[in-house]
Specification:
Layout lengths: L1 H6 L8 H24 L9 E4 L1 H5 L1 H4 L8 E4 L4 H16 L3
Parallel strand pairs: 1-2
Length: 98
């Protein structure tokens, strides 16, 4: 809960050193995540990246700071993933005669 609070910018209750440490670790995580995507053959610097859902929104300010992204968009709806899977399920059901 404390880490989530710091990531969301609610830092007034935490020691400055703790805030810096958490922010540094989150920035490293975001950098590693984008490097991992790149290692799989998708270059986020040259590909239009769409970030969807609550997890992406939590990391938005950290993702916006990295230099490993070209063009990108955030879908602001925290329930976007669930809604998308709901649509896919409906399509699947209709294609299978159910």
């Amino acid at each position: 809960a404390d880490v989530d609070s710091i990531i969301r910018g609610q830092i007034q209750y935490y020691d400055e050193n703790v805030v810096r440490l958490v922010e540094s670790m989150v920035q490293d995580f975001v950098t590693d995540l984008l490097n991992s995507i790149r290692e799989r053959g998708i270059d986020p610097k040259t590909t239009f990246v769409i970030f969807i859902g609550g997890g992406a929104l939590i990391l938005k300010c950290f993702l916006e700071k990295v230099d490993r992204l070209g063009k990108f968009l955030f879908i602001e709806d925290p329930k976007a993933n669930a809604k998308g899977y709901g649509i896919l399920y409906q399509v699947y059901q209709s294609q299978n005669g159910k």
